[in-house]
Automatic annotation (TrEMBL), chain A:
<protein>
    <submittedName>
        <fullName>Multiple sugar transport system permease protein</fullName>
    </submittedName>
</protein>
<keyword id="KW-0812">Transmembrane</keyword>
<feature type="transmembrane region" description="Helical">
    <location>
        <begin position="24"/>
        <end position="47"/>
    </location>
</feature>
<dbReference type="GO" id="GO:0055085">
    <property type="term" value="P:transmembrane transport"/>
</dbReference>
<keyword id="KW-1003">Cell membrane</keyword>
<keyword id="KW-1133">Transmembrane helix</keyword>
<feature type="transmembrane region" description="Helical">
    <location>
        <begin position="86"/>
        <end position="110"/>
    </location>
</feature>
<dbReference type="InterPro" id="IPR035906">
    <property type="entry name" value="MetI-like_sf"/>
</dbReference>
<dbReference type="InterPro" id="IPR000515">
    <property type="entry name" value="MetI-like"/>
</dbReference>
UniProtKB/TrEMBL annotation, chain B:
<keyword id="KW-0472">Membrane</keyword>
<feature type="transmembrane region" description="Helical">
    <location>
        <begin position="255"/>
        <end position="274"/>
    </location>
</feature>
<feature type="transmembrane region" description="Helical">
    <location>
        <begin position="152"/>
        <end position="172"/>
    </location>
</feature>
<dbReference type="InterPro" id="IPR035906">
    <property type="entry name" value="MetI-like_sf"/>
</dbReference>
<dbReference type="Pfam" id="PF00528">
    <property type="entry name" value="BPD_transp_1"/>
</dbReference>
<keyword id="KW-1133">Transmembrane helix</keyword>
<keyword id="KW-0813">Transport</keyword>
<feature type="transmembrane region" description="Helical">
    <location>
        <begin position="56"/>
        <end position="77"/>
    </location>
</feature>
<dbReference type="InterPro" id="IPR051393">
    <property type="entry name" value="ABC_transporter_permease"/>
</dbReference>
Length: 294, 335
């Protein structure tokens, strides 16, 4: 697993000495054990805790391994909490938020970057201005707006659109997309135009294929944010049957037997862990680009 | 604005500059005799037409974004400002009440408590969440083995839904069969009361939030550390600087900008803490974990007093605005 090592604080010469090697390997071992205990062990505790019986979960001190294994807790939790329905709700919320955001933000970023209309900079400035505001300062007025959307007078409560539409007003994503589109040479766009390509065709055939890295980053962070969100779905989805997994788990936490609750929590986290394992490269690249928010 | 060169290029080649919308009149259709005089005018006209269609197309592509921003961002900003000076409920029309919302806020004994608690949370969260990830990132940058593993496990908690993290830790903190007192007991230490005692509840929330968020902070620092040129360390070493001096005089200055940006982001994020106290303590015990946002939530969605909640939002905005202003001044003065 040795990687090409760049020069860091500790010099290679120091590392090669006997003392240096001993120190390095002890620090390494300590870090390995420490990281595993701090970040993996709690997850192990949850996954195995769900398989303990309720009486074993109440035992003091707790057991490291379940005395008897009850993997059926997961199936029970699935049925008892109707997790299939809540997975679907969450999927609709997160998937819809992703689709609506890309459909709104890609054309906007493209127009601001490549078509540069009059007042384009003013529009971008007004959008970026919203980043200055702490999100929670807008909680109340946005909630009131969602309950009675101006002009059309629709109440979006209990509809996933109450999550999709406010999520689409995300200046950070538009900024990231625009910054990426800016790097695509204008000559490419002009050349396609000369060949008779329409603006939409330029966007679909030239810009988007070249923007796969940023699209992946924006997509992943959008889906993860929607899956993790709690306070906004809590407010705009008061109907228990329409809530997301996070809101469900918080709501049933008091009454649900602990083993089933923990099983439900593990199941609700599986898609995010799986996404991370699959898309790790993009997520780390996105972090490095400083594209994280919240 | 399109660059003049490419605009001219298109006008010369006579290619239809439109995007399939309105047809452009054929420049060759004019009287042949006046061609020399007309061609300049025609070119200007074609360029103008092109600009207009480009603007129309641009705003056509922008309109969805403009609508969602107008409805769900710009309008709520203005409305929030107005609401702080109004009394509003779902039945009656809004009425102006001047500073009444703010007066009632200051009269609420919980108001001061919430701000003190939030500042305590922010201070503790920065102490842990700012310093620890930097130290961890510096350490990781020195390790030459199993780097992928370290990056993977430290980021796993970031992927967990915050409600799951909060509920899990609530179970870990259980003074009876909880994980933490079990571990402490196993090594012969007395257990703590964690969330059940007003003196440790807030610190317990800080620990959860640090555990959940340090993955992203650490990896951002790590990315910044990897951009530091190795020559700097070599030069420092040749000048006789030891490990600690290299850390202080090379690593820290070289990552100053990232450190500042994350410091600001963390202040803004931790001042808005909500999920942990809402899920884990409900503000207790003895109001020791009532935060600004938790109180704001109660005003708005328990008491339906949107005016008072908006006044609280405005104060939160002003408080965080001070931090932003400090940050801008700081970066300017150090440049």
């Amino acid at each position: 697993m040795t990687e090409a090592s760049a020069r860091t604080i500790v010099s290679p010469a120091q590392l090669r000495t006997r003392r240096g090697r001993i120190t390095y390997w002890s620090v390494f071992a300590l870090a390995l054990v420490g990281f595993t205990l701090a970040f993996l062990f709690p997850l192990y505790w949850a996954v195995t805790g769900a398989m303990k019986s309720p009486s074993e979960l109440a035992r003091v001190p707790p057991t490291l391994l379940p005395d008897e294994w009850h993997p059926e807790s997961y199936a029970q939790a699935w049925d008892q909490m109707d997790l299939a329905g809540y997975f679907l709700n969450t999927l609709v919320v997160a998937g819809g938020a992703w689709a609506v955001q890309l459909a709104v933000q890609i054309p906007a970023a493209f127009a601001l970057s490549k078509l540069r209309p009059v007042f384009g900079n003013a529009v971008l400035g007004l959008m970026l201005l919203t980043l200055m505001l702490p999100a929670s300062a807008l909680l109340v007025p946005t909630y009131l707006t969602v309950t009675d959307v101006p002009l059309v007078h629709v109440n979006l409560l209990n509809s996933p659109a109450a999550i999709w539409l406010p999520a689409a007003a995300n200046a950070m994503n538009i900024y990231l997309l625009k910054r990426f589109f800016d790097q695509i040479p204008a000559e490419l766009v002009e050349a396609a135009r000369i060949d008779g390509a329409s603006t939409v065709r330029v966007l679909v055939r030239i810009i988007l294929p070249m923007s796969r890295p940023i699209l992946a980053v924006v997509s992943i962070f959008t889906v993860v944010a929607a899956w993790k969100d709690f306070i906004w779905p809590l407010l705009v989805l008061p109907d228990p049957a329409r809530q997301t997994l996070s809101v469900l788990l918080q709501r049933v936490a008091i009454d649900m037997p602990l083993n089933l609750l923990v099983a439900g929590m593990v199941l609700a986290s599986v898609p995010m862990i799986a996404l991370f394992v699959v898309a790790q490269r993009h997520i780390l690249a996105g972090l490095a680009a400083g594209s994280l928010k919240g | 604005m399109p660059s003049p060169r490419s605009g001219e290029l298109l006008a010369h080649t006579g290619v239809r500059p439109t995007t399939g919308g309105a047809p452009v009149p054929d420049p060759a259709g004019g009287p042949a005799g006046a061609a020399a005089v007309d061609s300049a005018r025609l070119r200007r006209r074609a360029r103008l037409r092109r600009r207009i269609t480009e603007n129309l197309t641009a705003y056509g592509l922008l309109c969805a974004a403009l609508v969602v921003f107008a409805l769900f961002s710009w309008y709520p900003i203005v409305r929030g400002l107005l609401l702080s000076f109004q009394q509003v409920d779902f039945v009656n029309a809004a009425t102006w009440v001047g500073l009444d919302n703010f007066v009632r806020l200051f009269d609420d004994p919980l108001f001061g408590v919430a701000w003190r608690n939030t500042l305590l949370f922010t201070a503790l969260a920065l102490l842990l969440g700012f310093a620890v990830p930097f130290a961890v990132a510096v350490l990781l940058n020195e390790l030459r083995h199993a780097r992928a593993y370290f990056r993977l496990v430290i980021y796993l908690p970031v992927m967990l839904p915050p409600v799951v993290t909060a509920l899990l830790w609530k179970w870990f903190y259980d003074p009876g069969p909880g994980l933490f007192n079990g571990v402490l007991g196993a090594v012969g230490l007395p257990g703590g009361q964690w969330l059940d005692s007003s003196s440790t509840a807030m610190l317990s929330l800080v620990l959860v939030s640090t555990w959940a968020n340090m993955g992203s902070t650490t990896l951002i620092y790590l990315a910044a550390l990897q951009t530091i040129p190795g020559d700097l360390y070599e030069a420092a070493e040749l000048d006789g600087a030891g490990v600690w001096r290299r850390l202080w005089h090379v690593t820290v200055p070289q990552t100053r900008f990232v450190l500042l940006v994350l410091l600001l982001l963390q202040v803004v994020a931790t001042m808005q803490v909500f999920t942990e106290p809402y899920v884990m303590t409900g503000g207790g015990p003895d109001d020791s974990t009532v935060t600004v946002l938790l109180l704001l939530y109660r005003y708005a969605f328990v008491y339906n007093d949107f005016g008072m909640a908006s006044a609280m939002s405005l104060l939160l905005f002003v408080a965080l605005g001070v931090f932003s202003a400090c940050y801008v001044r700081l970066t300017k003065s150090t440049d």
